[in-house]
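Aim 2 progress update. The chain analyzed this quarter is reproduced below.
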Amino acid sequence: MNVLVVNAGSSSLKLGVLGDDGTVLAEHHVERWQGDTGPLRDFLGHAPAVDAAGHRVVHGGSAFTSATVIDDEVRDEIEALTALAPLHQPRALAGIDAARELLPAVPHVACFDTAFHTTMPAAATTYAVPAAWQRKWELRRYGFHGLSHSYASRRAAELAGTPDGRVVSCHLGAGASLAAVASGRSVDTTMGFTPLAGLVMATRSGDVDPGLLVWLQRAGLSLDELEDGLEHHAGLAGLSGAGGDLRDVRRAAAAGDRRAVLAIEVYVHRLRQGIAAMAASLGGIDLLVFTGGVGEHDAELRADAAAGLEFLGIGVDADRNTGTGRISRDGSAVGVWVVEAREDLEIAGQTRAALGHGPVA
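Predicted structure tokens:
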């Protein structure tokens, strides 16, 4: 079964065709996609024939707890969740609509970033807000980056030979989150009702005192200004003034920019704090996994994060800390691994499983 993987971001489109063994038979990345069928039509004109299509959908709400075959009803339910992910949901729907139009004879499957976290216990998902709010709206922690956390935690456990281990997965990129995974099941994560919560990110603030947000509104900021600032002008970009790319922030810090130095210190502090919190949710930690663009390529960040976590038994070997694979020291109580982010493999595997063609690879 060749699976077309359609990964629509807020402005980009990643396409791939994966064979049964996970081999990438064709791929294409559109940096600035307008939601039209053109790029997909062109790609399919040169790619191998496909038997199914798997689509990344950021938000599945409470309705979708696993990959789901798309029909008109499911498509409409996904659209109804747009308010919970206004940047990503419309683009996912555009990808679904385009692919269903061009490939009407093959099954299409929605793979949800939130689904992996539906195994979290109520204690981890419940907000301590007024009961009347809960009755009117379904306010809960959903968690995101589930496709990445699912793959990275499972792959690291396979490599380490500890399928029932306690894993803290660190997805670090422009967006960033952590997940606590016990025997392959998510039990906690850092993102919440929206992807704005948790760690410091490229342009997103991460956790902020809600009282501060109330104060800012009373001080005169509009809701639109507040949302724009927290989403697009906060995080590393807001702290450093050097943009949201950690590589640029490091260059500014190396040149003596004190704002950039502080930005890195805040980023690392929150990362260490989050890892320790995830370990607490697991009652201990066996594996620490780094994935995503920053997690895979910034060795200094991995070393700095681990340096403050030695009390958990985490130790990184400087000579090994150069690429993917195990980077922990010999004798380290916790295995530390770097795993390449492969959402495409996860989507293809979930698509096959949803269609009855075996378990997730």
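The chain is about 40% helix and 15% strand. The two ends are 13 Å apart (CA to CA). These observations will guide the mutagenesis experiments scheduled for the next reporting period.
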